[in-house]
Amino acid sequence: MPTLRSGAVIVGAYAKKIRKTLFAQLKDKVKSREISSQEIARASGEINKMLYILFVEKLRLDKGDTVRISIDYDLVNNQIVWNYDTLKVEAYRKVPEDDINRYLEEIKKGLEKISQLNIEEYNVVKARETRLGDVIFDIKKGKEVVGILIATQIDEDVIVRGAIKEPPFLITKSKLKFEESVENTVIKNFTSLLRKATPTSEEEAEKTIKEIREL
Fold first, then answer.
1. Which of 22-31 are b and which e, b meaning 16 or more Cβ less than 10 Å from the residue's Cβ?
2. Is residue 103 part of a domain?
3. What integer is the mean pLDDT of 80-84?
4. 128-147, pLDDT tens digit by residue?
5. Per the confidence metrics, is the pTM higher than 0.85?
6. Is the peptide bond before 96 cis (omega within 30 degrees of 0)?
7. How far is 64 from 96, CA to CA, in rounded Å?
8. Which of 114, 188, 120, 118 is nearest to 151 (CA)?
């Protein structure tokens, strides 16, 4: 059973690509009159109508978004019969250039702030444990609590994540080798965790802090 594959194509051109690909795959059968060009056009229109409903009416994709389509088909009595059970569709939304540039600028500023951090000003103190055994730590700058960490022991590892609100950055999920206790493991590795911090928005930092506190 042959397979039609569109490859990566923008939504504004998928219908033409489907029709062109099907014609290319069946050109020898058109020459031998096993199938007509009208039948190829009919079958292309059939599946393209289905995909239009999916892309435009359901997913509301823009013309510049990218899709990939693949589907098996067979030839039965000089007709193309689509096997819709094999239809696979991938869709990728186009990100506006202005958004990309804005996020890049935010990341650049965030990295600059982190590079200017005086890591020695920060320390971490065990605050409490959850009912599930997670250990919560306050991140302090002097006497002020400016962030939070949560650490979970899993076998011989300790999984840590957290956030600091000023400047806002995330301590993304990291795996540390267990050393004596969860508290000791976090304290010994705290400096390296800060060095690997990721800049974020104030909203995202606050969201992470709130989520951990609720535990």
1. beeebeeeee
2. no
3. 96
4. 888 888 889 988 888 888 88
5. no
6. no
7. 10
8. 188
